[in-house]
Queue: 2 jobs
Job 1
Amino acid sequence: MKFVETVAAVASPPGQGAVAVVRVTGPEALAVGGRVFRKRGVSMQGGVHGVEALEPRVQHFGQIWDEGVLVDEVLLTVFRGPASFTGEDVVEIGCHGGGLVTRRVLEALFRAGAGAAGPGEFTRRAYLNGKLDLTQAEAIMDVVLAQSDLALRAAARQLGGSLGERVRGLQSELLDLLAHLEAYIDFPEEDIAPETGSLLQARMARIRGELEKLLSTARHGRVLRTGVRTVLSGAPNAGKSSLLNRLLGYERAIVSPVPGTTRDTLEEVVMLRGWSLRLVDTAGLREGGDALEQMGMARTLVQLEDADLILQVFDGQQPPPDSDATPDPRVLRVLNKVDLGVHPDWAVSEVVAVSCLTGEGMEALEAAIAATLQAGLGPADAGDEVTINARHQDCVRRSLAFLQAAEEALAGGIPPEFIAEEMRASLGALGEVVGRTDNEDLLGRIFSSFCIGK
């Protein structure tokens, strides 16, 4: 795709640092770079240095000049299209990392003819120029935002094209099925023979199974990207805030023997055995309480509905509560204060016994948390499994619904024209995963979440 405008942006985070990176991409990238860069030991000719003549993919030491004023000493690298990230000519300037110097370098590029890049501009151009598909483009931000080794590995697999490859394989199978149906449409005198219909149904069922497998990874993908929403629940003064502090390794929540101290939810993130846990301390649940405490308990109930994991904390000195509730696989029962003694009615085998005061039992609790998550969400590292995000989930869900409608139509003897229409819709929805769509609004929503310079 031919872009007219050449754009520039700071690609490194704002603030002070040893080095910052400024990117330029577009048809005039080399010319713009040449108007501001002077290689050490080479004189300027007519105010423009021949950046076009520089060896690509090699750092060149020189200076950035702006209207006759030296801005900074830099390292400049040239990437000639199409062998570049965006598929266009690209210039990357490594300058000193102060906020002022990066701004001055960027202003010099603007005065030399570059425009300001928008959010995700570089990655958007890479996608539109066929350098990567939409799943890989999204994976770039997943790599940048990864908060755990597991999330980083999943993002790296997607960046390598694992999800796109799997989706394109399913697209190919759907196209084959559609071609068969189109053949019957082209020759209306030929009905779909029963044995042929059975074969088509079997192939549809296989593709449906693959789509269902992809859909099942959405929850795992969300957990890897945002963390396991882990709610600490229990009666007032059971030790929820103490457990939060113990898991974090520092005093984050106020701990008091007065029941009802925690009135609102408190959220922190901790890494535990490869999992990123979003710990949510909540108000204790009990009968009564003042208006503020009642509001806190209402928020607790909301948090419990959305939790991926619930650490239900009990005071070991108190007898176990009567409960006829259906067991919840998200719940891990934690018996606290075992250093003070355990009530004889507790069957300790049914709980993880800990002391938030002394740290006793915390290793066992961490192991139990990891085992509970693995049982509910699958292995933490998930091998070579791909995981989908919320946008992918919506696309796959719609594709699956259209495919199921096609299966039902085929089984009901509906004419192939109607079956093919459902198949086309299924194929179109699946194509949105990798970006085979003309929907500019979709692309705008995706790339607007990227940072400037990415």
Job 2
Amino acid sequence: MSMWKWIELSYRYAVLGAGRQGIAAAYDLAKFGDAKEIILVDVDGKATFASADRVNKLFNQQVAIPKQVDVKDAEQLISILEGIKTVISAVPFGLNLGITEVAVRVGSNMCDLGGATHVAKKQLEYDEKAKAAGITIVPDCGMGPGMNISLALYAMSLLDEAREVYIWDGGLPLQPKPPWNYALTFNMCGLTNEYFGKAFFLRDGRIIEVPCFEDYEELDFPPPLNKLEAFVTSGGLSTMPWTFLGKLQRLENKTLRYPGHWAQFKAFSLLGLLETEPIKIGDVDVSPRDVLSALLEPKLTQSDVKDVGIIRIKCVGRKDGRPAEAIVELIDHYDEDTGFTAMQRLTGWHASIVAILSAQNRIRKGVVPVETIPGEIIVKEALRRGFSIEERTNISE
């Protein structure tokens, strides 16, 4: 007799990628998504079986079903997604266009943990196909882009008129260890991707490009965080600058780190170690980024990361006919009960919230930019999950 009790609820979901964020998303779908079944997919069979077992133990019911599948194989993926209401892609962003095509073909809603704006913009081209298939596709969910944008929309809703929006966010170890004072809580390629290239912001009502590591500043936070540094990284706003062109005068996003991180990684950038184009060393062609990742990833990897996730929003505009600003702040910590990091919760749970809303037909059909989903809806769902969100509105006399 099975130790698990089968449940009969409403929806069949799939999560592609059985890593840290995928596990957290699957757990949240089980807890809040009226899940009849969650197919947990990974190319690594051992990982997907272990992850499904963890979700089932946390939820105390057999709802997660492991499947070893290479999501790059469209026919394999199609066979898995037949009959699935909503799929979450928690695999590297380079695979999301292919998954988008499969989602349209089989008629499954989809959201992903993208992080690469150029991919999200290509996904928008599937809007008419998604509408014809009767599905919802939401690129770039997660912590940032994702929850940071949803909280920015919520801050905007606290004013009568929003003119400027400033976003700061980051995931950090609670106990930083020198010399790096940083620990990986997501894939290494995600980190190097956001440290490379340019960000798209709105300034003076125009879209501009700002190089990574520019516009350094320091901000104060409650203890034990205290003073953090902030600087430009790429991809954190997804398509929001284009959506709010002509509506906001200023929109920008910076990444938060402990002091010293900026100088270290800007030096790597200046050396060309974040470049992907191979260079010749002797008779061998080598990608500088691959070398950096191979050397750095072991230094930034910890087996038991206890972390903190921070998102701060400042929205400037008018309320009741007077100048005003709205401040919204979310600070989340490693959860001892589930063993989920703050990064898992903020990333995986934002995606699962969007997936559940899509399954419930509470988001329109087509390819939907995350910044067009009302922030109030996301905040309401985040509060149900125990996130602490503080807000205040200051109105000038």
